[in-house]
Amino acid sequence: MSTTKISRRYAVALFELIQEGVDIRPALLEVATFASNAEAKVILESPAYPDAMKCNMLGKAVSGAGAKEVSRLVEILCERNKVILLPEIACLVDQMVAESESSVDAEVTSAVKLTAAVQKSLSGSLTSAVGKTVNIIASKDASILGGVVIRIGDRKIDCSVKGRLDGLKKAIIS
User: Fold this and answer.
1) For residue 1, is pLDDT > 70?
2) CA quadruple 89, 92, 94, 97: dihedral positive or negative?
3) From CA 70, how far away is CA 28, in angstroms rounded?
4) Residues 93 and 18 sit within 8 Å (Cβ to Cβ)
5) pLDDT given at position 38
């Protein structure tokens, strides 16, 4: 299992705490910054140092709002020998918060260059569908023949002629 998958699990749990109103971001940032330090990283990555020492060292770096929750996270990560994931977890939490609070980018690929009016109209439609402000990042790809392919995060909406032809081809062959 990749470290990103593991980190994402912890980040999702922390993000849910944030949504419930627990402000852990300052304490998480403190401990993640400390864990990113080159000297601390050597100790945290080394199996020669006991987990209790690593936990104690990171526990001293936690203070402020959300310190109790972040201290518990540090304990859990120390027990599971995953404490080196703290910076990645903090980064993922920041991304999740940013995505939930503001706007999202939509990569829109079309066969022809989109005019400003079409981009504005498409942005308005996607904003009402997604529930967030959508920023259009337009690109041109003549190979899709017509229509558009929209990517928002991990979602893909293929309304292109090429996509429809590929779908028909699959239906005929199978």
Assistant:
1) no
2) negative
3) 6
4) yes
5) 82
Does 13 score more than 60 pLDDT?
yes
At residue 169, what is the residue type? K
Q: DSSP letter string over the chain?
A: --HHHHHHHHHHHHHHHHHTT---HHHHHHHHHHHHSHHHHHHHH-TTS-HHHHHHHHHHH--STTHHHHHHHHHHHHHTT-GGGHHHHHHHHHHHHHHHHS-EEEEEEESSPPPHHHHHHHHHHHHHHHSS-EEEEEEE-GGG-SEEEEEETTEEEEEEHHHHHHHHHHHHH-
- How far apart, in whole angstroms, are the C-alpha atoms of residue 22 and residue 83? 22
C-alpha 68/C-alpha 91 separation (Å) is 20
CA atoms within 13 A on the CB side of 82: 20
Structural contact between residues 108 and 120, judged by C-beta atoms closer than 8 angstroms? no
Task: State the pLDDT at residue 45.
Answer: 81
**Type of residue numbered 97:** V
Q: Can you give the pTM of this predicted structure?
A: 0.55
Other beta carbons less than 10 A from residue 144's beta carbon: 19
Tokens of residue 39, six digits: 């000297």
